[in-house]
Specification:
Elements (H helix, E strand, L loop, with lengths): L9 E7 L3 E6 L4 E5 H6 L4 H8 L20 E7 L3 E6 L7 E3 H6 L4 H6 L17
Antiparallel strand pairs: 1-2, 2-3, 4-5, 5-6
The chain binds zinc ion (2 copies).
C-alpha cells in the first residue's frame, strides 16, 4: 500500500545537543534519534551477529568493548542516494544506515506509538544493572 509513495529521503540533518540527531524528511516529518539507539541498531554484519548471539554468561569484555567515555558520532556521510554511514568515536564505521532503516528507528512520540514491531524497551540493552 506504500507502493505509490515517493521515496522518502532526508532533506536535512542536524545534531541536537550531544545526544540527539534530528532528521527532516521529504514528507515533512522530523524524526528524532538518540545516537545510542542508532549505534545499538547498527546494521553491519558484525553488530548483527553480536545481537543475534545468545547472551554468554562467561563473556569477557574485549578491549574494544569496554566503553571509554560516551560514544559519539564523529562523521556522518551519505552513501549514494539511499543511505548514510556513521563513524563513531570508537572507530566503528561499517554500518550503512539506509533511509528506510533510519526512518524506522525514529524515536519521536508519534512513531513510537504507531510502531507495533518495536521490541519492548530495555530488551536490547547491554547495560545490565549491577545487583
Ligand atoms: Zn556495526
Ligand atoms: Zn517520527
Amino acid at each position: 500500500m506504500n507502493a505509490t509513495r515517493p521515496q522518502l529521503r532526508p532533506v536535512s540533518l542536524r545534531k541536537e545537543g550531544d545526544e540527539f540527531l534530528l532528521i527532516e524528511w521529504s514528507d515533512g516529518h522530523v524524526s528524532r534519534h538518540t545516537w545510542r539507539n542508532l549505534r545499538s541498531n547498527c546494521p553491519c554484519a558484525s553488530c548483527r551477529e553480536e545481537r543475534q548471539r545468545p547472551p554468554d554468561p562467561f563473556h569477557i569484555l574485549k578491549p574494544h568493548e569496554i566503553p571509554r567515555g560516551p560514544l559519539r558520532p564523529v562523521a556522518m556521510k551519505p552513501v549514494g542516494y539511499y543511505a548514510y554511514t556513521i563513524a563513531w568515536s570508537d572507530g566503528h564505521s561499517t554500518g550503512i544506515y539506509t533511509f528506510d532503516l533510519l526512518r524506522s528507528l525514529c524515536e519521536c512520540p508519534q512513531c513510537v506509538n504507531n510502531s507495533t514491531t518495536q521490541s519492548p524497551p530495555g530488551s536490547t540493552s547491554s547495560f545490565m544493572p549491577q545487583s
